[in-house]
Task: inverse folding
């Protein structure tokens, strides 16, 4: 009997999911578990890589039990991951030498400023499509090598491996210290600030500037790899051999899951942060408006599809902040009813620049602010302002994307956990002034990883098969007047200016 399912691991900022998909792209079974967030100092965000691996094994076993599926019924496994989060581990023991430094972490601000002061920003932008920013993996890796006792000496001796979370999980799934594959796909490699975007290989000059020994680095492979990175082991959670042949950073995986295969196709993912990607085809398009140029996916290593990306650090995380830090809501789902209970945000704007501002501003020194407060303001206005912040930040990115690509988007495809909030999606359409399209399967990140793996294994033949699976759940049409839309956006931009350069001013 031929395998009937493809498995995907979606390892995100707050938790890990395993999903089993049928040939028509529908879900058979899935499991999810959260992992701990650690904030040892202001601006620092860390995860325990060993906990993430433990949670990954657990959700795989749970999903297989729920679906009553064995390893022989799984055609392939795809991985998608929180992209820039950085892990360094001992290649013999598998033990991390330091916690994973999360993409939101800002401890490398001074290091990134030092690169800018040395005049390296133009080189970084031309070679990688990125900026010298705390967001990316290269500065985090350099910090570990310089700060963790013995790390540099061990790296020079060839005893350590570096990877993003996909590399870490694939290594363990395919054998770990017993011969696991040390790999990374082009989409994740393009987020390290160490890969030449056009040559699709590690850049020797940047490695030298950041003092990164090449022996640390994983092999760069296609996102959908017919040769497979390796197979799962009988000792692992699948208890059998499943080809591991799909690997995509989470936002690129969502682009694939939304079947955005043609130049001009765009999607926006609503998660811990928001990430809008626009397919630009087979050539990288430099940005002049604060966007990033990134690898979207590759089915052959010498041929890559590129994208423009607008990365927003804090969107869903702001809702978590309302819940966990302020206690003004009990669950994220509660925000819909609370926000609906008022006509507007009462004149306030919340700019959640907890990790600085990403696209299109790239201000490492910005910090969060709530402006316009009066005695009239209550929790309902703050909750609504938080949802509006998600939408206004998305509009900033959309405006930049229009100018960079010269394309006026007719509609925006959306995905991620927050798109289940109907009020948020209607608000997004109102603030953008374009229809917002929600697909039937909102967890398209995991679906994209499954597609990458399934295409490599021959489970799906081509892009046409994948397009046939995509279906619309609901279209949200804009209802605000132009005057209301533009007045609100002007207020947002004034609020953003209040947050700029806050740490620098200190």
Result:
């Amino acid at each position: 009997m031929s395998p009937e399912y493809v498995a995907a691991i979606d390892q995100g900022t707050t938790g890990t999911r395993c999903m089993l998909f049928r040939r028509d792209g529908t879900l058979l079974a899935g499991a999810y578990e959260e992992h701990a967030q650690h904030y040892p100092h202001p601006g620092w965000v860390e995860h325990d890589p060993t906990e993430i691996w433990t949670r990954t094994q657990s959700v795989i076993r749970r999903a297989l039990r729920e679906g009553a599926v064995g390893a022989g019924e799984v055609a392939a496994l795809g991985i998608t991951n929180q992209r820039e989060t950085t892990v360094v581990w001992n290649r013999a023991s598998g033990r991390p030498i330091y916690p994973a430094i999360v993409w939101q972490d800002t401890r490398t601000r001074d290091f990134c400023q030092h690169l800018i002061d040395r005049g390296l920003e133009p080189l970084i932008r031309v070679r990688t499509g990125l900026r010298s920013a705390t967001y990316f993996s290269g500065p985090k890796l350099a910090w570990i090598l310089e700060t963790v006792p013995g790390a540099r000496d061990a790296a020079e001796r060839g005893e350590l491996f570096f990877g993003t979370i996909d590399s870490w999980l694939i290594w363990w799934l395919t054998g770990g210290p017993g011969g696991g594959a040390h790999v990374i796909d082009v989409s994740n490699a393009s987020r390290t600030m160490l890969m030449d975007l056009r040559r699709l290989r590690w850049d020797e000059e940047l490695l030298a500037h950041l003092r990164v020994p090449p022996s640390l680095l994983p092999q760069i492979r296609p996102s959908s790899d017919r040769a497979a990175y390796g197979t799962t082991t009988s000792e692992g959670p699948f208890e059998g051999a499943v080809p591991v042949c799909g690997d995509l950073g989470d936002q690129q995986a969502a682009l694939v899951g939304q079947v955005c295969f043609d130049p001009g196709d765009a999607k926006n993912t609503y998660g811990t942060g928001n990430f809008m990607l626009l397919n630009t085809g087979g050539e990288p398009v430099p940005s002049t408006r604060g966007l990033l140029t990134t690898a979207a996916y590759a089915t052959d290593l010498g041929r890559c599809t590129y994208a423009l990306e607008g990365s927003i650090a804090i969107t869903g995380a702001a809702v978590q902040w309302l819940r966990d830090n302020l206690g003004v809501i009990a669950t994220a789902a509660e925000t819909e009813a609370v926000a609906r209970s008022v006509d507007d945000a009462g004149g306030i704007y919340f700019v959640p620049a907890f990790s600085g501002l990403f696209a299109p501003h790239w201000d490492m020194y910005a910090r969060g602010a709530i402006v316009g407060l009066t005695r009239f303001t209550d929790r309902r206005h703050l909750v609504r302002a938080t949802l509006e912040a998600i939408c206004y930040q998305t509009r900033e990115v959309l405006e930049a994307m229009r100018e960079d690509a010269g394309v006026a988007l007719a509609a925006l495809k959306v995905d991620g956990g927050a798109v289940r909030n109907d009020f948020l999606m209607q608000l997004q359409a109102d603030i953008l002034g374009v229809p917002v399209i929600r697909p039937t399967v909102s967890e398209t990140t995991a679906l994209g990883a499954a597609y990458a793996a399934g295409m490599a294994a021959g489970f799906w033949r081509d892009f046409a098969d994948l397009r046939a699976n995509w279906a619309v759940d609901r279209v949200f049409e804009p209802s605000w007047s132009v005057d209301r839309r533009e007045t609100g956006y002007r207020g947002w931009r004034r609020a953003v200016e209040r947050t700029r350069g806050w740490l620098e001013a200190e």
In short: The chain has 17 helices and 23 strands.
